[in-house]
Amino acid sequence: MPSNVLSTRVRCGATRRAACKLFLVHAALATCVGAQEPPAKAEKTTPELRRDLSALTGIELRYPRDKDKAVAKVDEREITLGEMARYMDEHLSPGFAGFLATPAGNLYFDKRQPADWIRQYADIVALQAEARAREVPQEAVDARLEQAAEGGFEAWLAHYRQQREDQGVKSDLTDERKANLRARHRREFGLADQRQGWLDALTPDLDRIGLDAAHYFYRENPRYFGGVVHLAHILVYDRQPVSGQLLVDADRRETTRLLAEVKARLAPDGSNFEDVARLMSEDRRTANRGGILRNVSRFDPRLPPSVTRAAWELRDGEWTGPIESPYGQHFVKRLSYTHYAFFLVTESTLPKVRDIMRRKMQEDAMLDIRRRHRVTLLY
Prior knowledge:
This protein is α+β, with helices and mostly antiparallel strands. It is 47% helix and 12% strand. It has 13 helices and 7 strands. Strands 4-3-6-5 form a 4-stranded antiparallel beta sheet, with helices on both faces. Strand 5 and strand 6 form a beta hairpin. It is globular, with a radius of gyration of 21 Å. It starts with 12 loop residues before the first helix and ends with a strand.
């Protein structure tokens, strides 16, 4: 295998495209449940538990007022909001920095996108550092960036058209309308595509992997194909639920207290996990059913990768946590595993095997790069 084998997260129409923006926890968590028994009645919450989650206070940013504020660190170097805005201006959306300085542009900071942008840009800076260390040719990177941008837009556009059709609106688009949508996509979701492009440049191209390698991967990971895990989780917010901003002051101290209390309440064998979830989980869509989520595939696009990865690495009945995601801190318990379908590795199923291999390789790689380049989010 080439020496530049890294491993991290995969290209998946749904996972990498912000359009299918898989990780909106509340919508996503609800869809994972599937058919199951009626939810158990929730226990009375403790008086100390936070009730008004919308009132949680996060780090407030405005541009250009906070352009010199550090929003992340990579290799101990501070990355400022202004640096990220300039990058987006130069590589994705000309005029972006000027737009961000307007009242309309500053409205973005009341939404989740700036937190996503900062996370994605910090990853890009780490990937760039890794590419320099490996002396990856820039022309190879440029080709991957172009492919990722086009693939990202086409996936987003297909999703957009489907939404319009579901609403009974014709999806025919003029060239001008399509160009406007492309500009919007690059502004709002271009960093996610860029991160994917850098990642593609740093991991092997698996499109030529043959049946022998596919058979080996399948033998090592048979449960990735046709299997699902049933899990329960407890979420404690360390970010503002709507904007994704890191919590500050009293709210951050309360998060620390709640995490300690959850950990203290949980039995080592996990036997009371669902009871603690009903009592203390701040994911209100799943708390009243003990935090249970069913039918979670290994690379399920509906959930943060850190949550699915943790659940799949546990044994039935085990729990772990806290685990960080873009939404907060999770405790995760694996309930059971179900295998729904058998899988044969043939020429016709080879693309699926390659896709799962790519997802595994790229997920591993991004985690490794973040660790080695010490990616730290400050917003």
